[in-house]
Design brief:
This protein is mostly helical and 69 residues long. The protein has helices spanning 14-20, 24-30, 43-49, 54-67.
Length: 69
């Protein structure tokens, strides 16, 4: 049996994460990340553009994704 590699939110766009893991939408909303017009940005770019704490955002995204596995 092969294991699924962990998802690295840093390597994905906001849109990709929300498409694969709809539960991340609540996280983006909580951090004030523009998940509509800015969804084409990487998580890093979105955090910088929307003045969010990137480390805390990544932690929250990882927890949200892990909670449904």
């Amino acid at each position: 049996m092969t294991s699924v590699p962990p998802i690295d939110p840093r390597a994905m766009t906001v849109d990709e994460l929300m498409a694969r893991h709809p539960e991340t939408m609540a996280v983006f909303n909580a951090f004030g990340i523009d998940s509509c017009c800015g969804a084409h940005r990487s998580v890093h770019e979105a955090a910088a553009a929307d003045d969010a704490d990137e480390s805390a955002l990544l932690d929250a995204l990882t927890r949200a994704i892990g909670a449904v596995r």
